[in-house]
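Appendix B. One record, verbatim.
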Amino acid sequence: MNRKVVDILDRPSKWCQNSYSRLADGSTNIGNLFKSTSWCLGAAIDQCYGANATSIKDKVGRKIKIDGEHLHIWNDDPKRTYEDVINLCKKLKI
């Protein structure tokens, strides 16, 4: 997998909250990520890193001081912004 999270979340409309990922019509997608048009941070990591996603989520979790399996709590915080997410990904080079 060559893509990085910053490549997938390259504009605000590609990031979502309160859903793992979304289809073009805005409905929640928990199945095939390749059909999604927007992703939460965890889904974007899964999409990019596949079998290595857990170690990347753990890396992100350490940075934001949360368990890597609970990135959705950080992602879905109502105060969270696209800029917060993308800046974190850039800092971690993911």
